[in-house]
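Example 3.2
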Amino acid sequence: MTALRSVIFVVLLNLWTIGVGILYLPLLLAPSAVVVVAAKFWLRGAMVLLKLICGLSYQVRGEVPRGAALVASKHQSTLETFALRLLLDDPAFILKRELLRIPFFGWYLGKSGVVAIDRSAGMKALKEMVKGAEAATRQGRQVLIFPEGHRQEVGAEPSYHTGVAMLYAGLNVPCVPVALNSGLFWGRGSLAKRHGVATLEFLPAIPPGLDRKAFMAQLQDSIEAASARLADEARGRWAHLPR
């Protein structure tokens, strides 16, 4: 039953995305603020489909940051990319430039004020990333990064990249870690969307000023410990989740 519901969700999500994407085409000529509002409407529709068809939703713990901040989130699922866009005011996502080439989706991403980097450019790309992030924080926006760079399976060995440390040092704003257990419900590379309530938890902010080694250790330790705790909580509540 989970597989059937998941297939229906994917089909309807694609239809919703194509329909809205075509309807939104004139917005590519509008100010970015208009695109941000329109994107949240699309996302709310996607989350309604997810809940109605798959029985999957999410809850939030902790204090959602407002104003300029660096938000560093664990990444296990597509779910948090949707949820964080809805929860944060107008976040500047750090993402790979290739995503901007995707028809419709990439066009609107580019219009919404993301910080796109060319990962093949090495140190130059990291410097451009910091420059773009600085511009976002000057506007009072949050900068959102997934420190591991891609989705990880629940319980996988963590692999935090140095880009987040460069942002932390260059922006001089608090860093808010985000832990989650979404991968148990909507896993990396998995068609299945399991019913339940995933949790995103905004952890206490790390103030600016730490040296790189201390910052990276605190960030990884806090996210990994909290994510493991959230996974244990979910498994204790829903017996159908993977162990």
